[in-house]
Amino acid sequence: MLSSSRSFRWLLAKEWRELLASRAWWIFLLLMGPLVGVAFISAAGTYAELSAGGGAGEAFSPLVGIWAPTFSACELGAVFLLPFVAIRVAGGDRQTGAAKIEMQRRKAALLRTSAKTMVLGAAWAAGMAPSLLAVLLWRSYGGSVALPELASVIAGHLLNAALTIALATVAANVVEHPSTAAILVLAVTVGCWIVSFIAAVHGGIWERLAGYTPAAMVAQFQHGLVQLEAVGVAGVLVLAGLGLGGIWMRSGVATRRRVVESALVCAGATLLALGASSLRPSWDLSENRMNSFSRADEAALRGIGRPLSIEVHLAPEDPRRGELEQKTLSKLRRVMRHLEVRYVSSTSTGLFEQQNEHYGEVRYELAGRSTIVRSVTPESALQAIYALAGVEPPSPAPEEIFRGHPLAAPPRGAALVFYGLWPLGTSVLAFLCGRRRS
Amino acid sequence: MSDGLDLEIRGVTKRYGALTAANQVSFTIRQGEILGLIGPNGSGKTTVLECLGGALPADAGGIVRGGRVLSAGERLDALFYLPDGIAPWPRLTVEQSLAFVVAYFGGRRELQDAIVAELQLRPLLRQRVGELSKGQRKRALLAAGLLTSQTVLIADEPFDGLDLPQTREVAGVLRAHKSRRTMLLSIHQIGDAARVCDRFVLLSGGQVLGEGTPSELAAMARARGREPATPELEEVFLALV
After folding, report:
1. CB A385 within 8 A of CB A369
2. Per-residue pLDDT at A53
3. Which pTM was predicted?
4. Given its phi and psi angles, is residue A343 left (phi above 0), alpha (psi -120 to 50 degrees) or beta?
5. ipTM rounded to 2 decimals
6. Most buried one in A28, A118, A177, A297, CB count within 10 A?
7. What is the rounded distance in angstroms from the CA atom of residue B237 to the CA atom of residue B234?
């Protein structure tokens, strides 16, 4: 009796050996050190300079000041380096002919896709090690580490890597040659940038679509915001990508059948993604609650219970619209279940709408009453909503005010770690692994 | 693993646009025999094997056993296909590759040492597959194929890359394993095919021209008015093609 678990263990071991022998992975690993180093040293240096200047407050949140820039190196790695490693692992067997042999057992596509995904996950985890070294260095300087917000950043980059791996798996299995697969993956990345650009200009449905691009998803996590909606949609996309990869991995199946099966997977994924996009639960894991109103305000807003409608007369490229969306509306969406936001503008920049007397207005409507405000600050929005609802504005508890964690310590030793020890260590390891195999 | 039933290949057809690479190819693989698929270059041998091995989707036809068409899963359980011109697992050693094949396919671990010795792979066990010569790699792949547990082993050009002494040795190894494996071998060197196979299927232009032992094929040639110069397989082949 052929045991799937035994076969799977051997597949895992084989894929791991192939990964250890892959130059693409060692180069990826080697480059991640200096990439993270540049980001961390620059961020920690700036943080130290600002801290030395005195002061306290939101500016001294390690989440914004250290982790977001440091881990942004992982985003670069996921976009420009990981695809090549993933395509090498996912599609290398087709080039050597090993796939023709390995596909000759039942459940081969499932087993092989799972094993390759797990090995690529481990490959990515190793690539994130320099970022974790940065955390240790930061701690050694006496810096503050809030684990929930750090976990949020790490989770975002893991999910982003999973999306890249899924995309690379599809590309490596659909097209014949790895270079074509690489171009396909980069084309999707560029496509996402284009969607974000169009969203910034035109808003509307593009803005909603841009919210599901990997860059937008990572940005949420980097702010300590975990939204079930984003996790759900990303999860569906990852599974769909791996499923499509499995469909096209199979040999001996007519192209027409594979196309039909792919269409079914895409249709199912679209339905599931639509369902996931309506999931509302979210968690603000940032230490300074940067994605939330104060607890007192949240309680008061939840207590209103009636539908709130907001009409915003601001163009997509107007910076006030971005500020309103980021600092007020995104927070409102998290606490008010019946919230409808409508953007009104006839141009993308708003430059030529200034003569329109309504341009710049934010109209709040609640329980048949309405008010118009021209300010886009959270305070003005809350004031308008409380006034419409006839609710007394709560005063925030003093312990809720985030004082920040200033740290005037330069990033000592970081350059040695990231530019010296890490490249040296990975080079030695790569050499030793090569020797052990030969 | 033997079920005592022959496999019937029925009407296998594969088209590439206007080109029909295999046209209604039908023959029988008898239990316990070594069947040679012979034919000139471009006759469709590899296409037929790839369709049987599940590497290519056939446009028509299938494999019948005991009067029933095998499903894709049953075919995987019954046949193992060893393609030609592949260089799998280049970074694994020969030893690791064979161990992988045994574990992954539920192969015959107990035969591993014997097969390694028969194919003279012992000095190569610690060498990476990617560093082997063509002939060495072919022997390593044959070892992998012989270690699998399916009833039928299909091999495309098993002697390609081997010199004459090696061809003879490998032919001997394959004959020695005939008692436990039915084999379908695609061989374009007629002399090599005659050395190892019991019966032959002659393919030309994607069609089966004849099936049987050399004497049966010679009779077919005579029946078509083409008397072979000698009863040797090569002459019979030339008379039929």
Report:
1. no
2. 78
3. 0.89
4. beta
5. 0.92
6. A28
7. 5
